[in-house]
Known about the structure:
Mean pLDDT: 95
Order of helices and strands: HEHEHEHHEEEHEHEHHEHEH
Distance between the termini: 26 Å
Helix content: 40-55%
Radius of gyration: 19 Å
Largest sheet: 8 strands, parallel
Structural class: alpha/beta
Strand content: 15-25%
Shape: globular
Amino acid sequence: MAQAELADRLGFYTYWVAEIHCQPKFSLLSAPYVVLGAAAQRTTRLRLGVAVNTLPVHHPVELAEQAAMLDLVSNGRMDFAAGGGHPHSRAYECFGADHKSTHDIMAEGLTVIRKSWSEEKLVHDGKFFHIPEVIVNPKPVQNPLPPLWMATSSLDGVEIGARLGVNLFLPIHTRTPDQVFEFADAYWAGLTKHGHDRKNCELGLLAPMHVARTTAEAKARAEEGVMSYFKTILDMRLDYTEWLTRRGVELPARLRTAAGSMVGFDTVCEKHAVIGDSDLAVEKLKELTQRTGATNLLTWFNIGTVPHAAVKAAMEQFASEVMPKL
Length: 326
């Protein structure tokens, strides 16, 4: 909450929190709208959203209602993003979701959410969801409605986002720079292919971030906390793979591209994060946005176990020395 209040004062645009299930070593954020409801009462201008709503483990009407209620209590500050969630989670097994249908459920679910907010009475008869004539309540107070965002780390997901004409988030921490560039190019080309005006769509990049007075200080201050994230993710990925094997279950296709070994901190700094002094951050972020056409940056300061005091210091320096130059 203190970081949300600080972001509100410093001029950050949106405060995104995750939705994480069945991963106690990673996060307690299984009910993100409770957290965002609290943040809404402690901020005045900051937009609020879940990045991402794990759509395949929910009914889309349920998410439409929760997000719209957040819009009410925040006086129109809700943003909405959906995705498949962490691929190494047991959340799919817990909630009875199917990895094989992730992208199809995403596409239909986003359609249902858009209709839930825009139509007086919702009727939907699709492959996964069959909804009779119902009134979805409440509706968002924003007019026009907030845009839909979709997060993905695969070309198949990029194609779904482009076909639907929704905004897209890409992570730089789980894909190489060349992959991020490839996905960005595919998104912009896909929008045109599917008849959408790219001027009406936005691309965001999720980037682990830490700045300090010198690059050496930034690396020293952030290394342990940042690498704790990558270690935790690797441990859970290996545990999940072993768990599936033990149960005689084939590893889902969308999980087979995940790395199976630990990445080094030098590689993280070079390819998967922005860690350095303010000048380095400006240069690297400008390079990323120019190469990808990104219009939004999700600067992830509190990754892993980076201490709260260091997170605040990095946020303050970023707001005063980096944001004005972007």
